[in-house]
Amino acid sequence: DLPLPNMHNYVLATFFILLGYSLILSADVILVKHLFPSSAGDFSYAAVLARMIFFVSQPFSIAMFPKVVSEKKETSVHFRLYLKTLLIIFGITVLTAIIFVFFSSFFFNIIYGISEPSVELIRWSHALAWCMIPISLLNASIYYNLALNNFRINFIVVVLSILYVVMAFMSKTGVDALLIILFIVSVISFFCIFIFSLFRFLRRDKGS
Asked: What is the average pLDDT value for the chain, to the nearest integer?
């Protein structure tokens, strides 16, 4: 019989990685409430609506996971599936973000009954909509590497999530600065994992 994997290490590593990702995805609401309490109300409206863009992409990341985890090592089929998933998620999130940006006032009116949203509410919702694009791509990249038991690169998410929180407390210049930090951290996190995954695959493909 084949030995079972060390589930303790797997669960512990996955917990910290997904905890770091959860901070990148959701800590903005808590940070705004703590650092800028006067803006917390409007920001929570913007955050909930903008996250619809992220949830639209979720089924594709979830569908990819069992197909990749079925094999013990990365193959060209798996990597092509990963790239295809990223392209689909990128296309869907960009399209959804554009629709959201153009019709955000309509959504606020229909869902919250806010007929005249403030300038800040519109601006924050638009900024969050664009943040959801790299965050959604990051989600797929994390799941791809978890399926292959590649934890090392995923820990960059833990490091950058802590950096995100620290930078948020250090800046304290406003909600807009916080959203800029969130966007930069999510983009860097995604590209770090993607580039590492690409070079790892190319190295293995060349050696095979």
From this structure: 89
CA distance 158 to 62: 21
What is the number of other CB atoms lying within 10 angstroms of the CB of residue 136? 29
Q: Indicate if the alpha-carbon torsion angle 21, 126, 51, 172 is positive or negative.
A: positive
Alpha-carbon gap, residue 144 to 205, rounded angstroms: 17
Give alpha helix (H) positions in the chain: 7-35, 40-69, 76-107, 119-147, 151-171, 175-207
d(CA 106, CA 113): 9
Q: Is the pLDDT of residue 72 over 70?
A: no
* Mean pLDDT along residues 26-36: 94
For residue range 3-25, list pLDDT tens digits in order.
445 667 778 888 999 999 999 99
